[in-house]
Design brief:
341 residues; 7-stranded parallel beta sheet; 20% strand
């Protein structure tokens, strides 16, 4: 494999850095961003926020702390060093042929933008030039993407979970793979200093990773494309109801449907629990409506002197009360289980 050194913008060889974060992310980013100055990198950031949160708030907050140009991603925008790219709300951030690609496909690991989508896209197109960084956050979005970065020769970095405001995301990466750096935020500059010295090796990208990247770049795909990634599982997609294919990559197992929804094992279990809870609440509501209708019918029958019909409706309403109470107990058990997971 040929080796190349990091060069200037004219040589089109410069570091590619992807940063993923969630809860507590803005505070963490503020402590990291200024440490990038002088490293001549192209930086891509995905932070999980509410759809109502304006991305310009993040853009303005970060621009005050760095000499880099902080921009909102636009389709077919040319990628340049000394620039930080932020996704527009409710879209995936991808790259292709040194240009930004805006993705409007389904959520992955329950998020759009998804850290996994960004990291996989960076890894497939830039291989060992890429450094993936996971900061504070809940759950495990980014874990699968970090694994792809490692498989294509990139560098993996996580914030030390001990100091992370929310350690779930850094811990998920550490627990599933051997990362290159585990550092507190204040020491990120040392990592960036090492990145610019790194020799770049052209890594061949595995066919399964190329296939997944291609799926992410397309809003809809043929079912045959997913069938080639792994065996069909016994599970259905909690978002669209389609079948899920099981994809094993080293220690990490994930699931993807032909529409493009993707889940880690823990995210799939969480979505299943949420769907069960939602179904139970709907069932409880429908039973309460039926009980109320039976009581209304019983009242009307009683006023008309139809005592046997009134009594029958009252008895059915009473039975519905028993079922409703059982459903509520089951719902509370589900909620307690969710708190413990």
């Amino acid at each position: 494999m040929a080796k190349k050194s990091l060069g200037s913008f004219g040589g089109e060889i410069y570091p590619i850095i992807g940063i993923g974060t969630s809860s507590g992310g803005l505070n963490a980013l503020k402590k990291v961003i200024h440490q990038l100055d002088g490293h001549n990198a192209a930086v891509f950031i995905v932070m999980h926020v509410s759809p109502q949160f304006r991305e310009e708030v993040i853009q303005n907050a970060l621009q005050k702390l760095t000499t880099y140009n902080v921009v909102l991603a636009e389709d077919h925008l040319k990628i340049k060093p000394n620039t930080i790219y932020l996704p527009v709300a409710n879209t995936h951030l991808l790259v292709k042929d040194d240009y930004i690609l805006i993705g409007r496909g389904p959520r992955e690991n329950r998020w759009r933008p998804s850290i996994n989508v960004l990291f996989r896209s960076l890894a497939v197109h830039y291989t060992s030039r890429v450094t993936g960084i996971i900061l504070t956050g809940l759950l495990d979005d980014g874990m699968i993407g970090m694994n792809v970065i490692q498989k294509t020769g990139g560098t993996t970095v996580v914030q030390d979970p001990i100091e992370a405001e929310f350690p779930d995301m850094p811990s998920a990466v550490i627990n599933n793979m051997q990362v290159d750096y585990i550092v507190p935020l204040a020491e990120m500059k040392n990592v960036f200093d090492e990145i610019v010295k790194k020799e770049i090796i052209d890594f061949p990208v595995p066919e399964d990773l190329l296939a997944e990247a291609s799926i992410s770049e397309n809003v809809s795909v043929r079912i045959e494309d997913v069938q080639n990634l792994g065996p069909h599982s016994v599970f259905s997609c909690p978002d669209c109801g389609g079948g899920l294919w099981e994809i094993n990559q080293g220690k990490i197992t994930k699931y993807r449907c032909h529409i493009g929804h993707e889940y880690s094992e823990s995210e799939l279990a969480l979505r299943q629990r949420e769907n069960i809870e939602s179904t139970l609440w709907i069932s409880a509501r429908m039973m309460e409506e039926r009980r109320n209708m039976l009581l209304k019918m019983a009242d009307h029958a009683s006023k008309k002197g139809h005592k046997s019909l009134a009594q029958s409706n009252y008895e059915q309403a009473t039975k519905m009360d028993v079922h409703i109470n059982r459903l509520r107990e089951l719902l509370f058990d589900q909620q307690d289980a969710g708190k413990n997971n």
